[in-house]
Protein 1
Amino acid sequence: MRSIAKNKVKLANYIGKLPPVQHSRLQKIRKESGKWLPIWSGDEHYERFEIHGWPTNMVVDLGKSICTCRFWQITSMPCVHACAALSRVNKDPEDFCHKWLTMDSYKATYLHSLNPIPGEALWEKSVYLKPLAPKVKRKPETLTKKEEKMLMRNLQEVKNKKVQLS
Ligand SMILES: [Zn+2]
C-alpha cells in the first residue's frame, strides 16, 4: 500500500512519454545505434531495412515492429538496429515503444488505491469454526552415511545367515 501511494506521487508532475527508467534505457540504445548503418530495402512503405554493423547484419521491419536480434519483440522497446532505422526515416523511437512502457500505463497502474485495514484486534469475529490446518505428513528420516553403512552391514549379515542355513 505504501509503495503504491509513493509511486503515485513520485511521477505525478513528470512530463514525458516514457517514465524516467524507460526513457534512460532508450537513450542508451539510441546512443549505441549510431554505430549501425541502415540500408533501405526499397520497399513501398519505407519500413524494411538491412542494418549493417558488427558482429553481423540485422533485418528490421518498422511496420511489424521486429528485428532479427529479437530485442524489440522481447522487450517491446526498439533495439539499436531499429533505432538506427528510425533515425534514418526521422521518426521518434519513443513512438515505437509498446504502450505498456509509457507514462499512460504507469499512471493507470497507480490509478487505484488499496483499502486501508485496521489492526487484527479490531477485525470482526466470525461465527464459523476456524479452518483446520491439514495433517502434516512426516517424511521418512534420511540416514546419515554412518547409519546407512550399519544398515547395509546388517542386511549383508542377514543374507549370509540365510545362505548358511540353506
Ligand atoms: Zn535489433
Protein 2
Amino acid sequence: MVLSSPMYSDVTVERAVGEACNQTSDVNEERVARVVGEACIRLHLAEERVCPFGLSLLWPSEACALLVGRSCGRFDIYAPWNVTLPRIPKPPVTPPTPPKPGAPQSKVLFLTDIHWDQEYAVGSSADCKDPLCCRNESGPPSWRQRGAGFWGSYSKCDLPLRTVENMLENAARTGPWDWVYWTGDIPAHNVWSQTRKQQLSELTVITRLIHSHLGNLKVYPAIGNHESTPVNSFPPPFVHGNRSSRWLYDTMAEEWAPWLPEQALKTLRHGGFYTVEVQPGLRVVSLNMNFCARENYWLMVNSTDPANQLQWLIHILQASEEKGERVHIIGHIPPGLCLSSWSWNYYHIVNRYEGTITGQFFGHTHMDEFQMFYDEATMTRAVGVAFIAPSVTTYVNLNPGYRVYLVDGNYKGSSRFVLDHETYILNLTEANRQPEGVSSLTFLRDDRVFQRFWYLRHKGHVSEPCIDACKTTVVCSLRSGRYDELQQCDLLFRGDMVAAVRKTLC
Ligand SMILES: [Zn+2]
Ligand SMILES: [Zn+2]
C-alpha cells in the first residue's frame, strides 16, 4: 500500500474537511479532494503531483470519514456482522494422513503480484522521491545513486516486460503443470497516474502473454487491489453506472473466457469472484478479497458481507461437503489482513468446513510466508493454513520469483492437500535461478530454521537479521489467520514480550 493515511493528527486538515462535509452539494466533492491533496503534501507523504491519486473520485462523506472518523458521513466500516451457517452439523473431523508412497501428485504453478511497469527505464534513478522509481520521470541517478538495472532493481521499482516474459518462459520450461493459480496485481505502483484505459490494456497484455506461454493450460485468476483505479477502489454491486466496477469485470470476463466456464464468468461480472470444478473431486473458489480490505473506501458505505460473497462461499462449501468434493480457495489479500468482521467470519467458515477446504492460496504481501488457522474452541489445534506466495515483482527490494505447489493428486479419495512447495527466484545479481525450500517449521525451537525462513521470506535479499521483537512479531503474524490483535501472541509468550510486540506494531 502506498500513501495510507496517517493524516488523523493534522487538526487543521480535519477542520477543513469537516467544513467541506457539512455542506452537501456536489461542488464539495472537488473541495474535499483538494483538501485531501493538500493534507498529503503538508504531511510530506509524497511529491505534490503524486498526491491526489484519484481521491477526487470519492464522495465527500467517504473522504470525510477517511480523514475525521465517525463524526462525519456514514461510517460503518468497523460495524460487526455475522454470516449464517446452515443448521447441518459439522461432520466428525478425521486427522489428515499423508498419501501412500507413489500416489499421484499435481504440480500447480502459482503466479502473483506481477506489477508490470510499462514505463520502466534502464539507467533511470532507482532512488527517487516518488513511491515508484526506475522510470524516465524518476530522472537520472546522481553520482552516489544506483541506476535502474536491465532485468529489474533492488529498490522501490516494478518490472520491465522482458523480465515478466523471461519468468514465463522459465516457468513454461520448468513444467509441465497441471493447472495455474494467478492471484492478481498486474499493474505497476504508479497509482497516482493510472487510467482505466491503461489498467485494461495491462490486464489484456499480461493475460495474453500468460496464455501464449502456457498454451492450453487452465489458469484460475483472482483480482488484486491494483487492478482498479483509483487503487483499492472496488465498489460492491449496489453501485451502478459509471462508478461501478463494470468497466473492469467485463474486460476480465472477456479476456479470461478461454479459462472459465459461462457460470463462472457470470459471477465474475457481478462481483469479481467465481467457482470452477478443476477436476472431479476438486473445486477452486476465487474470492474478490477487495471486499475485505479497509483500503476499499466503498466499504464505508456498507461493509456487511459485500456482494454476499461469504454467504455465497458457504453455499458452495456446503454443496461440496455433500458431494465429498475438496475445495481450494484462492484470493489476493490474505485473510489475516482483512477488516476484523470479515476475517472473523472467514475464520469461522474455515473452522466449519475444515474437512472440505484443503488449500488456501494468497499473495499481496510480496513475501514468502503463511497464516495459520486454529480451532475456535481452544485455539490450539491447527485446522488450516493460508499460503502466501512471494511476488513476481521486485517491489520493494526483492528478487523476482514464482511459486510451485505439489498437491495430493488426481485420484479417488485424494486429500488435495499441499504436500510441498518450491519457490523459483531470479537472482538479480547473478541472474540465475534455483529452487529453494524450508524443510521444517520449527522456528521457535531452532533459530537457524527461523533465520533461513527470514532469508527465504525476502526471496534471498535481506537487509537486516530478524531477532528479538522482530522475530516475535513475525511468528505472531504467521499464527494469525484472523485479524485478532495478536491474541496468538498471548498464547505464545507472556506479559512483557507481548507488550514489546505491541510496541513494535503500533
Ligand atoms: Zn502487489
Ligand atoms: Zn496487492
